[in-house]
Amino acid sequence: MVPDGKSIRVDLQLIADMIEPHSRVLDIGCGDGILLEYLVQSRHVDGRGIELSAEGVNASISTGLSVIQGDADADLKDYPDDVFDYVVLSQTLQAMVQPKVVLGHLLRISKRAIVSFPNFAHWRTRVSLGLLGRMPVSEMLPYEWYDTPNIHFCTIRDFVALCRDLDIEIEELKILDTNGHIRLASTSLFSANLFGEQAVFLLRKK
User: Fold this and answer.
1) Which residues contact 193 (CB under 8 A, 6 or more apart)?
2) Dihedral angle, C-alpha 135, 141, 145, 147, nearest 10 °
3) Which of 31, 58, 76, 134 is the right S-S partner for 105, CB 3.0 to 4.6 Å?
4) For residue 1, what pLDDT is reported?
5) What integer is the mean pLDDT of 182-206?
C-alpha cells in the first residue's frame, strides 16, 4: 500500500522491491504516478517520471511528483549517461516505436533497468491464435487489434535473445500470472514462456 491508502499492483510491488532505498530513479511511462509515489514515500528515492499523456502528468504533479510530459522514443537520447541508478519501463515496451533503441538508452542513462511486459507466448494467446484464429483479448491485452497502442509484441524468449544481442546481463527474472503473482522460477524458459502471462526483468550492463 502507498502511504495514503491507495493499493499498488503486485507487479509494481515486485518492481519496488528490486530498487534500493535512496536511489535515483526514472519511471518511464509512469501513468498517474502510483509506483513513483510509492517509491518516493516508502523507499525515499530521488524519483523522476516521464509520461506521454497530459492526464497522467497532471495526476502525478497533483500529488507532488516530479513528472514531465514526454515521449520516450524521442526524448531519452537527450538524457546524459549514468544519471540514474534505476530506470523503470513497466508495461510500456510493447508500445515503443523502437524498443531496441529504447532499451539501449535505458542502460546508457542508468546503472540498472527494470522492464516488464505482457508475454505474447502465453498459452491462452496461443490458443486464441491457433484454435480461434483471432488476436487475443485478455486482462493483460485488453485491446482489439484495430485500436491497440501495443505495436511490438514479444515473448519472454524474444526479450532474452534481445538482451543477449545487446550484451545486457539479466540479474533477475520474475514470471507472473494473470493476477501479478509470481508463478514459477526462471530456470526453464520453455515453461516461463508457456505459462507466464507477464515478466519483470532486472537488467544491467555487463
Assistant:
1) 119, 121, 155, 156, 157
2) 170
3) 76
4) 47
5) 81
